[in-house]
Amino acid sequence: MQALVNLASQIHPELAKTRAKLNQLGIERRLLSNKLLPKLSVDYNLLRTGQPFQPEGDMQWTNTYFANNYKLGLSFEYPLLLRQERSKLQLNQLKRREAELDLQQDTREVQTTVRTVANDWEALREQLRVQEQVVENSQKLRNGEQIRFENGESSVFLLNSREASLVSGRIKLAELQAKYAQTQATLRWAAGGDLE
C-alpha cells in the first residue's frame, strides 16, 4: 500500500498542478530579484552627414563619416527606495509559501484518500473470498439436499430452502464483485491515473 501511496504522490494531477505553480512562482521570484539590480546603459551613436535617400531621380546619396564625430553615452540608474519592487518580491514569497502549504495539504489529502480506498479494497477482497466460500458451501448443501430428495429422505421445502440460500449467496457475491470493481476504479482515480 505504501508503494501505491508513493506512486500517487508522484503522478497525481492535482499535485502536479501545484508543483507547476511553485515552479512558476520561483521563476517570477528570479525576475523580481533582477528588477532590484541597478541599470547600466551604454549608448554609442556614429554621426554622419548625407542626404536622405530618395528613390526617384538621379540624385546620388553620399555617406561621409566624419572622423572623431561620434557620441558615447553611459547611464546608471538605481532607485533609492525600491518600495514597489520589494513589495512585489515579498508578495511573491508569500504566494510561494502559500503554494508550498497547499502542496503539503493536497499531498496529505491524496495519501489519505488512497489509503482509505485501498483499505476498503482489501476488505472487499477478503469479503469476496469469504462469499465465494459461502456460495461454494451453499452449492454443496444444495447438491446434498438434492441427493437426499431423490432418495426420499428430504422434502421439496428443504430443497427449495437450500436453493434460495444458494441464489441469495450468488446475488450477494455478484453485488460484492461489482462493488469490488467499483472500488478498484475508485482506487485508480484516487491515485491520480491508471495504475495497471
From TrEMBL:
<dbReference type="GO" id="GO:0015562">
    <property type="term" value="F:efflux transmembrane transporter activity"/>
</dbReference>
<dbReference type="Pfam" id="PF02321">
    <property type="entry name" value="OEP"/>
</dbReference>
<dbReference type="GO" id="GO:0009279">
    <property type="term" value="C:cell outer membrane"/>
</dbReference>
<protein>
    <submittedName>
        <fullName>TolC family protein</fullName>
    </submittedName>
</protein>
<comment type="similarity">
    <text>Belongs to the outer membrane factor (OMF) (TC 1.B.17) family.</text>
</comment>
<keyword id="KW-1134">Transmembrane beta strand</keyword>
<keyword id="KW-0812">Transmembrane</keyword>
<keyword id="KW-0998">Cell outer membrane</keyword>
<keyword id="KW-0472">Membrane</keyword>
<dbReference type="GO" id="GO:1990281">
    <property type="term" value="C:efflux pump complex"/>
</dbReference>
<dbReference type="GO" id="GO:0015288">
    <property type="term" value="F:porin activity"/>
</dbReference>
<keyword id="KW-0813">Transport</keyword>
<dbReference type="InterPro" id="IPR051906">
    <property type="entry name" value="TolC-like"/>
</dbReference>
<dbReference type="InterPro" id="IPR003423">
    <property type="entry name" value="OMP_efflux"/>
</dbReference>
